[in-house]
Amino acid sequence: MQSSVSLSSAAAAAPFGGIKKSATSSFPVKSLYSPTPSTLNDPSVMAAPKWAQKTITLPPQKRGCHLITPKILKEIGGDLSGFKCGLANLFLQHTSASLTINENYDSDVRADTETFLNRVVPEGRSAPWKHTIEGPDDMPAHIKSSMFGCALTIPITDGQLNMGTWQGIWLCEHRDAPTARKVVVTLNGI
Amino acid sequence: MQSSVSLSSAAAAAPFGGIKKSATSSFPVKSLYSPTPSTLNDPSVMAAPKWAQKTITLPPQKRGCHLITPKILKEIGGDLSGFKCGLANLFLQHTSASLTINENYDSDVRADTETFLNRVVPEGRSAPWKHTIEGPDDMPAHIKSSMFGCALTIPITDGQLNMGTWQGIWLCEHRDAPTARKVVVTLNGI
Amino acid sequence: MQSSVSLSSAAAAAPFGGIKKSATSSFPVKSLYSPTPSTLNDPSVMAAPKWAQKTITLPPQKRGCHLITPKILKEIGGDLSGFKCGLANLFLQHTSASLTINENYDSDVRADTETFLNRVVPEGRSAPWKHTIEGPDDMPAHIKSSMFGCALTIPITDGQLNMGTWQGIWLCEHRDAPTARKVVVTLNGI
Prior knowledge:
homotrimer; alpha+beta; 6-stranded antiparallel sheet; Jelly Rolls; elongated; 25% helix; 3-stranded antiparallel sheet
């Protein structure tokens, strides 16, 4: 774990002074999507909106696609459990790696994805790049980073990341030289 | 509609006991972006933050790109109308399909996009994939899913998805065999 | 700047009438990620959740990738400073341009990325597109828009976009004819 920042929010009780009362009466909190009787009686739905943010450092990985769901859950799982409903944003602070969601079971899928990326983005003598001062793998890495993206937003439901059965979080390392990678995780919900 | 979860948040009035008063006075809610006189007087800006979450099941679609904006709005449009300002997150729980935003008018654009995907990702005898046990279309489907992504976050403004005139939400089905697909929709806003 | 909408939220003090008290006592706001003593005493963590939303119009740019971080910060920097922790969503309302995060230093990286996009997406006589009525660059532009995406969600930390040292926000213009482009920026946090 890296530096960890900030936390939770609590709404001010009387934000615009005199109009507090009418606001309260005019805009009661609505329950959307027909909560079941059990959730209507569940005091957790009254919890204040919470924010949490943390920077995770992932250890250096070799070029290729890596399943990092366990590592991410180890870092944030305890905090996730405090959210009934919300969103988790994972933001990779780099331009030569990427975050994506894909199959979590067969490692061949990750190997094949790396094969694809290397086929679709030219590298080495056949490549037309002007930006070569950081090595032949650098410009392809930048392109791959924009193809897959550096950020994910995942729903939180009942204290867990609400991904599908076969979904996992991948870190795709596009450089030859492994380096540690930082991910800013932001949790928001109730 | 699938199982539906959760609802709305209401901030606790005095979260850290004794410091409530100073918090209220030190951090009044600021009106950002110069609200017009009409919004300043609009009690809706005083509404409590709300959360809503729901899983939508999209019926099986054939391989290709499909405009699903009407289906999504049919499922969430009523709830959207309760949000003055916010964000809608759509999260597809699958690794062989994708969600993207693109042109909502000419179906040729969707057909051409499918043509592109099939050109850029090798399939069949010419393909180098190791992961073939689920059929020749499976590994290409995984790659396409990461290329376009499985999630969208769209602004909500005045009770509607604030997309551009020509934007629509697409479900791209990358498998040959149509299957139902689940999308977790999370709404958050005021 | 375009029309600007809405603003901030203030939670109603007693949303479900009689149960206010138990809600408050049962669900105190938890401080996640071990705030340091200084943040525990920092009244900003008591601030109400805030929402801000604004439509920015970017001036017409020629086909290619453009660094727009300074322009974005000029428009929202003042408001960002009011957020201790949060998320910024940037949503491009167009289907023939894209937003991505990539290298912010060497303009060759942007030029090479444009070269890549033009290589991977066929255009002109060699292209198989059915959708040609808006010009030979239009269908390729739609495909590139889905490849890179039209939206970004970036963490806010201590009043700033918490991107990595080398990250910048790019607008990629995929049409030959420059046109103004609109971005809806939504800020949410405490």
